Amino acid sequence: MFHKLLVVLLVCAGQTAFAQSIYSWKDASGQVHYSDTPPPDGKARTVKQPTLAPGKTAPTDNAQPSYVDKELAFRKRLAEKTEAEEKARKDKADSEQRQRECSASKQHLAGLESGQRVVRFNEAGERIFMDDDERAAEIERTRKAVERICK
């Protein structure tokens, strides 16, 4: 039991020693001193700064990114690439759908303008032939649809 307690106390004491700064200064006779407390006059050079957290050091200007930062950057690039591919696929599908609608509208307009008899169905499912006024209104509506869809 005593050995375990001794190990715990040494570990705790070691942790506090790591958290302190070490100061260096010269006295009036030119002697260099090192201590964990600064001199009374405050004219000392800090030799060791405490670390920010266990296992991490203070950031430097030329520090390389850590593996965690590299992994996060990679995942971000991968997500952006996937998103761009998905957007391109959706744009292509929308474009193809628009082309099919445009083609169908143009074919319908050509059929209306050909002069052939055009049939539509009423609510009861009976065939009704379009008269000239209905045909003109349908041609105008289809032309507007072609202009809107086939930009």
Q: Your description of this structure?
A:
The protein is α+β, with helices and mostly antiparallel strands and 151 residues long. Among the domains are: 17-52, no CATH class; 89-151. 54% of the residues lie in helices and 13% in strands. The strands form 2 sheets. A 3-stranded antiparallel β-sheet has the order 2-1-3, with no helix packed on it. The radius of gyration is 41 Å and the shape is rod-shaped. This is DUF4124 domain-containing protein. Residues 30-67, 79-115 are annotated as: Disordered. Residues 79-103 have a biased composition (Basic and acidic residues).
Spatial shape: rod-shaped
The N- and C-terminal alpha carbons lie at a distance of 86 Å
Number of strands: 5
Q: Describe the biggest sheet?
A: 3 strands, antiparallel
Question: Percent range for helical residues?
Answer: 40-55%
How many helix segments?
A: 3
Q: Biggest sheet: strands side by side, in what order?
A: 2-1-3
Rg is: 41 Å
Order of helices and strands: HEEEHEEH
> What is the mean predicted local confidence, pLDDT?
82
Beta-strand portion reads 5-15%
Broad structural category:
alpha+beta
Report low-confidence residues grouped into runs of 5 or more: none
Keywords:
single chain; 151 residues; alpha+beta; three-stranded antiparallel β-sheet; two-stranded antiparallel ribbon; 3 helices; 5 strands; rod-shaped
Helix and strand arrangement:
Elements: H1 2-18, E1 22-26, E2 32-35, E3 45-48, H2 67-113, E4 119-121, E5 127-129, H3 132-149
Helix pairs in contact: 2-3
